[in-house]
Write the structure tokens for this entry.
Amino acid sequence: MNIGKFIVLDGIDGSGTTTHTKALKGWLKKQGYSVVLTEEPTNRKIGSLIRTMIKTKETSSTMDALLFAADRLDHLANVIEPALTAGKIVISDRYFESSIAYQTVAGVEMNWVMELNKFVKNPDLTIILDIEPEIGLARKAKIEGKFEEPSFLHKVREIYLQRARSQQYPIVKTNRSIAEVQKYIQELIQASLK
């Protein structure tokens, strides 16, 4: 049986995860691969609830961590695992590194966030897209949600970079043109598919 590959692009708001996961899907399809593009929070029931809640300040950081972990387990069982079993490449716009970075900065203990996510599957490749928060936020059409604020995102970025170094994730600087960044990401993917 041909088991697929699970690839994640993660990074702070405005780092380009959505732009580059979409471009990556198009490029991989042209190479003849069967690709599933997904994201977190998902568009499933728990993910939709999260999308509504993070635009407000109604939930605590602990509740956010629990909701994201629940959405992720649902995502894994109903989207990621079935696609991988069918031999597809799954590309996710964010995954558990987002919870580790964002929820830790929001005041939840990192070890507890990791414990909540201990049952999720590790990706075959996680790439961290890195940008200065001010540049990333300037790229966004509109700012919405409690996490999109420069001083908060500077701390989130620092955790992403620490985690990337400790887990040996490739870090891709995204303050260059989309074409340059995408070419570099494609080279990383090509190496991992060999």
